[in-house]
Write a structure and sequence with these properties.
The chain is α+β, with helices and mostly antiparallel strands. It has one domain (2-140). Helix content is 19%, strand content 32%. It contains three helices and nine strands. Strands 1-4-9-8-2-3 form a six-stranded mixed β-sheet. It has a three-stranded antiparallel β-sheet with strand order 5-6-7, with no helix packed on it. The protein is globular.
């Protein structure tokens, strides 16, 4: 029941333009409070940003997995459903290289509960099934 209410709240917010400004902004971006705030061994990721029909941004990794993205600190919704990381936009179809850790949603602070920052967004974006790519940094892949 809580999950259904959370999804309705998120959908209502998107339809009402809660993100403000450009109504095509992604409303489901979560970011770390600080680099390394979410613990785990750091690795380099290679993949492609993928937008789901519900607006969530995932990382289609070269190894075939597609975890939900927790973005670097300070990331904001960008226009057209993108993520704005320090003035650089990342959108559906962008090939990227990133540094971060792989996590299980339940291991994020409050990730096991629908009424928390990571839990609400992570469950809506299917992070509980897909896993989570917690990014400290990201850049467009060369080429």
């Amino acid at each position: 029941m809580v999950r259904r209410v959370a999804v309705v709240m998120i959908a209502s917010c998107l339809l009402a333009g809660c993100a403000g400004g450009d109504e095509t902004q992604a409303g489901y971006l979560a970011s770390q409070g600080g680099i390394g705030a979410i613990p785990g061994a750091r690795v380099e990721f290679h993949g492609t940003v993928t937008a789901l029909a519900n607006g969530c941004l995932m990382l289609a990794r070269d190894n075939g997995t597609q975890p939900w993205i927790v973005w670097p600190p300070g990331t904001m919704p960008g226009s057209g459903g993108s993520a704005d990381v320090d003035g650089v936009l990342f959108a559906d179809g962008d090939a990227v290289t990133a540094i971060g850790t792989v996590a299980v949603l339940a291991d994020l602070p409050g990730g096991g509960h629908d009424d928390t920052y990571y839990g609400l967004l992570g469950h809506y974006c299917d992070g509980d099934a897909a896993g989570v790519a917690v990014l400290d940094s990201i850049r467009h892949a060369a080429g």
